């Protein structure tokens, strides 16, 4: 049986873009339930996936909940923003380095207790697991990085009794998904605390995720809808303008986060494209015997650089956090970093609108992916 998957990548606040794409899919497909079998996610994408899994029977309602959530979001809903909390964090980290004592959650800048409250308020994990057991979804996967074992772990709940897999630096664990898995997957290194899932400590799932689409394929997908959070580079090779500034800490860290959340995904899709091309030259009989199978991927990414859209919006950040961001580097060099941490409604609503328009521009590709043009889901009445 053919299965469709949605892969929601990481990106911190950039994941608001995914909500716009999902809203467009809802409008285009007019599907009653979430129109896929497998939900695969990492980092902030796991937050979006948890609400989709919770409301798997009502796709329109799930999307409306996501739009409402991100449209009213503030940084204070994700991490503590008071001056006291930020000063205490700086003192805690300096003291830890100077006096070598251990701190719960490791070294981190921002306390994500509000994110746990947000998840507890908006997500019912008993319902999520029940929806999978009832077959509304065949699988839900959340990726996290185990700091103790130096490997990535795919936590998944599935209707099939498939065995857990083990690959180089990547293992899988069948379990009921809970709040801790989402918190762990979304724990941006250095900024958010590590989450303990006995007996190990976990952080952002994108950190060591060398094959982001592996879990979807292992769980049975042969069609994967991927929503990225970084603009694809232009095919035209242009010589970048040299910067007169020194390279700041913010610039380096922004590049690191981009690499964590996007580089491996781009390489994974490139590899699948090459495998698909090669399989064309193998007879159908040989393909049946082979462990390889063609995987259709539809990859939607922002049409604009989401980091550039942070310009002027840093004013919505708490004063002390804005000061700390300024200490990392100039505004121009901090935009990438800021785009991951700017959980503010003004920025998020802009990203939702862009995601919606980008997906509508690929309406025909989306219809083909969900087989609407071949008698699958009901067609968009406005098409």
Ends: how far apart?
29 Å
* Percentage beta strand: 5-15%
Tally of DSSP helical segments: 14
Major sheet attributes = 10 strands, mixed
**What kind of assembly state do the chains in view correspond to?**
single chain
Question: What is the gyration radius calculated from CA atoms?
Answer: 21 Å
DSSP strand count: 10
Question: Low-confidence stretches at least 5 residues in length (pLDDT < 50)?
Answer: 374-383
Quickly describe the structure:
This protein has 383 residues and is of the alpha/beta class. It has helices spanning 16-29, 44-54, 59-71, 83-99, 113-122, 125-133, 179-185, 214-218, 249-279, 284-289, 319-328, 331-341, 345-360, 363-369, and strands spanning 4-8, 38-42, 139-146, 151-158, 166-167, 170-174, 195-197, 200-204, 223-227, 296-300.
